[in-house]
Amino acid sequence: MRRWFAGLGLASLVAQAALAAGPVVAVPTARVERTERVPLEQLPVTVKLPLEGTSVVVVPLSGIVLDVLVREGDAVKRGQALARLQSREAMTLGADLSAAQGAYGVAAAQAKRDEQLLKEGIVPQARVQASIASRDAAAARVRELQAARAWAPAVTGSGMGVYELRAPMAGRVIERAVQPGGTYDALAKAFVLTAGQRVMLELRVPASLAGQVRRGQEVRTSEGAVAHVSETAGVLDAASQTVLVRAEGDAGALLPGMQTSATLWLPAPPDAVSVPGNALLGEGDAMRVFVRTAAGFRAVKVSLLARDGESRRIVRGELKHGDEVATGALDTLQARTATEGR
Questions:
Q1: What's the whole-model pTM score?
Q2: Which residues touch 128 (CB under 8 Å, ≥6 apart)?
Q3: Contact 251/31 with Cβ under 8 angstroms?
C-alpha cells in the first residue's frame, strides 16, 4: 500500500480528496449553445466616402475664385450657390452662344430652302444632305454652349465673366478644395457633397478566409458603427496576403480618411458551438472541456475558433447544442481523468 500511495502524484491526491468530499454533481455547469457565425476580429479598416449619395462638384470653366460661400460640414440645398468664380471663358460664353444661335438659324433656313428646291428638282440630293449636316452641327454647338451656360450660370450684377458653382443635390459639404484667390483649371475638384450620414469601410481580410465573405454580412467597428458587406474583391495583395472587402453603413463617429479596426462575422462551421470561457482548460492542441454524462464527466478535446463576447468562446469538437460542460473544479476533473487513465 505504501508503494501504491508513493506512486501517486499531487494531482491524483487532490482528485481523490475531491471525490471523497462530495459527488460530481456539485461541479458547476453551463449549457453548450448553438452558434451560426464566427467573429473575425481586429481587421484593419480605412473609412471612405460611400459610392451612392456622394457628388463631386468640379470647376466647369478655368478661373479665379472670388468667394467661397459654404464651409465643410454645412448643410446645403439643391441649387444653392457654393462659390463664385471669374473666368475669361465665361466672359465670351454669352457672345459665343449668341453667335452659335445665329449660325443655327441661318443653317436651318438654308436646309429648309434646299429641301424645297429638291422637291422642285432644282438642286441635287447631295446639296440637301450637306445643308442638313450643317444645320445639325450648328444645333449641336448651340446645345454645347447652352449646357456650359447652365453648368456655369452667370451672376447678375457681379461683373463680366462671374459665374457660380451650385450644389447638384441637397446634402452636407464633406470636403472643400477651393479657397478665395485660388486659380483653378477646368474640371478641378471644388467640393464633395454627401446626401446622408453613411460611409464605406475598406477592410483587409486574410486570403485564407476571403472565400467565406458574402454580401450582407455584418461588420462592426471598434467605435460601434455597424455596416454590411457591399463588395468582395478577388485580387490578392501579395505583400499582406489579404483581400480587399468593402462594407457600407451609418457613419456614426466615423469620418472619411480615419483608420480603425472592425469585426467581420463569417458563417460558423457546422460543428462550431459556443461555450463559457471558464469551461476551457489548457491551450492549443491540449485544450479541452469536461462534458457531463450519466457516469460523471468526460474530457473532450476542442479547438478554439474565436471569442463570443466577453464571457464565451466559439470552439469545435465533439460537442452539440444542449450538452452540459463544467465551469468549475476543472483541475479536479483533470486529475480524475488522469487517475482513471492509469
A1: 0.66
A2: 111, 114, 115, 117, 118
A3: no
